[in-house]
Amino acid sequence: MCKVMVKAVIIRIIGLVQGVGFRPFVYRIATLHNLRGYVRNLGGAEVEIFVEGNEEDINNFIKDLREKKPPSSLIQEVYIEEVKPRGYTSFKIVKSTRTKSKLSMIPPDFGICKYCLEEVLNPKSRWYHYPFNSCAWCGPRFTMIYRVPYDRENTAMVDFPLCEDCLKEYTDPNNLRRFHAQGISCPKCGPKLTLLDKNGSVIESESYKALCKTAKLIEEGNIVAIKGVGGFHIACLATNDEVVRELRIRKKRPTKPFALMALNLEVASKLIEINNIVASLLTSIQKPIVVAKKRENCPVSELVAPNLDTLGVMLPYTAMHYLLLEQTKDKFLIMTSGNPKGEPICISEEEAFNKIKGIVDYFLIHNRKIINRADDSVIRLTRGKPIFLRRSRGYVPLWLITPFKFKKPIISVGAMLSNAGAIGVEKYIIPTQYVGDVDNYENLKFLEKSLYYLILNYKININESLIVADKHPLYPTRSFAERLANKYNTKIDYVQHHHAHIASVMVDYKIPIDEEVIGIAIDGVGFGDDGNIWGAEVLLVKYNEYKRVGHFKYHPLPGGDLAVEYPVRSLIGILSLVLSEDEVVRVCKKYNLIKGLPKGERELNIVLKQAYFLKKPLASSMGRFLDAVSALLGVCLKRTYEGEPAITLEAFARNGKLLDIDEKEYLKLDNDIYIIDTAKLLSDLLQLLDEFDKKSIALTTQIIVGRLLAHIALKCKNRSHRYLILSGGAAVNEYIVKGVEEVIGDKLEILLPRSIPANDGGIAVGQIAIAAVRNSMIE
Ligand SMILES: [Zn+2]
Ligand SMILES: [Zn+2]
After folding, report:
1. Ligand having the closest approach to the CA of 118
2. Distance 70 CA to ligand 1 centre (A)
3. Nearest listed ligand to the Cα of residue 181
């Protein structure tokens, strides 16, 4: 009889493979395929597997490794090497060896898995009605980890020693979901919920009863703060106008949309239109808020997302949220972040009682500490493609693998609005969680803390790091970067805002170091190299340099920052290039726009002086142009949250018709640079207003500016160009992207951000790449 040849391989897997039940899974499939050997953790982001047996079994094992891996694991790189068999007689999980790779990946949070939820809903299970059930495949990680490696004693679960039953499961390698699962607990040994009134007096201290009472209080119209995974939420009914109005008053948030949480996909489908992409995002382990088209006859109060045709919905990501929603009649609730306006979300009871006591009637708290603050992530669909508005819980601090290797660490601080920082180390860029608008002390502190957390855990020596900031001289992030550079006596580099926007997407798609792409960067504000405000740029971009080949025509921005708040100012600024003062006044009166200036006619006169005589500052920005159109059409006359005039204009255009306009007459070549004449376009829109409906004008305008930018891209395209990258806060606009797509066709491949936000939350990634390449910090 012929003896079967024994073969052996060593497999190294890099990615999110620790703290996610990977080793028991490997143990199970190895024994299933009759293989001998071992599996062990190496470093913090790597698993080593040695298997020997017959070839077919090894091949099947490798197939299962890829196809049946635990749902929360993420395989980023695999190395397989054939080696000599060593005569193992069994398969074992062996102890981790000393760290080979120095980087320990900090795992992100995972939403509750279906098995844990089943246990919570099963009256016979010992986890029945237990709000904190989790396993190796699910549960919080980043938000409760003090430091790497991910072991229980390094997390907030250190306060909850395992009971006998849990310990038994923790030490059983046959227990697929609980063996060495660092975060597990049960009603006997785990965290507990308590319901408090707004003065801190205990109303109910038994977890499930506290949940049921909370649901009842919400049903009665109360607003309740709920301590969750990455911070506090504020929960209340989404179907009662009175309640939503009260929440808006207390939160000082007149129109910014509130997020909803729905019990399951079926409930969510009554609120928003669900296709395959939306469904898979909603049910993914990350459980982000997904912004999708609102359903007709949606039962949600109009006050939840005024003037918008979309709603942001997420599904419960803990048993606590599920059990709470289950107890409500609607099966969905407003679940908005628990913070005072503009500040970070509260993570401790102390913060919550200090800062949001005036907003809520009750507090549902628990006794597990939140170590790292993380807001709910937000994703919206643009032309069917998911794009981050906010990258946080569930996704951070996953790293991006770059196409290069850094000689020394790099720390970047991002820009200003919806900000995040990042660090670059070895071949990775690791963005911080979403920080928010860094225009106040609290958020700047949050940014510092988030960066220091990464610096500490990735063992970065700041003394030998390069620090990177935005070129804008007045951004608080820039002074923070300068303080850091001074303190550690290290080098600092400044990166142009829109260059960083495009480079961030280049990293996202691993564009090689010597390749040039065409970039369209569209947003509200970015400091330009000529000192003007940029924000509608066509650029030829490499990591180390860029050339501006086209932009919107400069116009005065009367009152600077004030114009951002009152869009009529931008309208007057743009029209001042083509109309006389008297004509502008007539337009303002005809379309009832003076009410968009708080001090009325008196203010109008000042604005006219700023536009016609001061003529400063100068802007060339998609944001300000969309603001102007939004004001002209009467859609939005006051901005109360970032991008409001543009976002409501986009929503308003729904069901509009495309008007037949030849956009090319708005494009001119001036001193080797293409200029889009937005002033002429805007004054022509005035003529159209007498003839066509406003929705069609809104739709057509947005498509046209997309087309115009794309025409410039094609004019500057040479044979080596493969990609057109779209980025910046306005790159999520459905109609602008449509306009770009119409003109580009298949002449270039269009790339939109996919793992980082299009807005300034993605800037830090681009800053690192640019600074690294041009300072020769790449190996
Ligand atoms: Zn689970
Ligand atoms: Zn237990």
Report:
1. 1
2. 10
3. 1
> Residue 610 carries which DSSP code?
I
Nearest to 670 by CA among 546, 550, 499: 550
Classified as helix, coil or strand, 88 is coil
DSSP string, 137-152: TSB--GGGBSSSS--G
Cis ω on the peptide bond leading into residue 397 (within 30° of 0)? yes
CA of residue 287 to ligand 1 center, whole Å: 14
- Per-residue pLDDT tens over the stretch 628-675: 999 999 999 999 999 999 999 999 999 999 999 999 999 999 999 999
First-to-last C-alpha distance (Å) of the chain: 55
Give the CA distances from residue 228 to residues 131, 247, 373, 375, 439, in Å, rounded to whole numbers and listed in that order.
11, 19, 10, 10, 26
Distance 154 CA to ligand 2 centre (A): 18
Nearest to residue 584, comparing CAs of 679, 690, 693, 705? 679
- For residue 555, report the distance from its CA to the centre of ligand 2, in Å: 65
Cα separations (Å) of 408 from 125, 329, 424, 462, 542?
A: 51, 56, 8, 10, 21
Token pair for residue 25?
């899974």
- Note the Cα 413 to chain centre separation in Å: 16
The environment of the single-atom ion ligand 2, i.e. residues with CB closer than 5 A, is: 163, 166, 186, 188-189
Alpha helices in 462-599 (DSSP H): 476-487, 497-508, 561-565, 567-575, 581-590
CA 440, CA 677: separation in Å to the nearest integer? 36
Cα angle vertex 225, ends 221, 229, to 5°?
Answer: 135
Tokens linked to 129:
């009605």
Phi and psi angles of residue 619, each rounded to the nearest 5 degrees, phi first = -130, 150
Phi, psi of 405 (to 5 degrees): -125, 130
Name residues whose C-beta falls within 8 Å of residue 646's C-beta, 6 or more positions apart in sequence: 622, 623, 626, 627, 630, 730, 733
**Could you report the per-residue pLDDT of 347-406, keeping only the tens digit for each?**
999 999 999 999 999 999 999 999 999 999 999 999 999 999 999 999 999 999 999 999
Please give the structure tokens belonging to residue 590: 């005809």
Cα of 197 vs centre of ligand 2, distance in Å, is: 29
- What is the 186 CA–ligand 2 centroid distance (Å)? 4
CA of 346 relative to ligand 1 center, distance in Å: 26
Distance 184 CA to ligand 2 centre (A): 8
Spatial separation of the C-alpha atoms in residues 543 and 403, rounded to whole Å: 11
Please give the full DSSP string across 294-335, using - where no structure is assigned. Answer: BPTT--S-GGGSTT-SEEEEE---SHHHHHHHHTSSSSEEEE
**Nearest listed ligand to the Cα of residue 162:** 2
> Closest-lying ligand to the alpha carbon of 71?
1
Q: Which residues have a Cβ under 8 Å from the Cβ of 691 and sit 6 or more positions away?
A: none
CB 46 within 8 A of CB 101: yes
- CB count within 10 Å of CB 339 equals 24
Rounded to the nearest angstrom, the distance between the alpha carbon of 126 and the centre of ligand 2 is 9
Tokens of 368: 């597990």
Give the tens place of pLDDT for each residue, 271-304.
Answer: 999 999 999 999 999 999 999 999 999 999 999 9
pTM metric for this prediction = 0.96
pLDDT per position as a tens digit, 611-621? 999 999 999 99
Expressed in angstroms and rounded, the spacing between residue 628 Cα and the centre of ligand 1 is 50
β-pairing, 673-676 with 546-552? parallel
Distance 158 CA to ligand 2 centre (A): 13
Cα distance between residue 460 and residue 1, in whole Å: 60
**Cα(265)–Cα(280) distance, integer angstroms:** 10
In the chain, the amino acid numbered 706 is G
Distance 14 CA to ligand 1 centre (A): 22
Instruction: Give the 3-state secondary structure of residue 560.
Output: coil
> How far is ligand 1, taken at its centre, from the CA of residue 381, in Å?
28
State the helix-helix crossing angle for 678-688 and 567-575, rounded to 10 degrees.
100
Query: Rounded to an integer, what is the distance from CA 183 to the centroid of its chain?
Result: 25
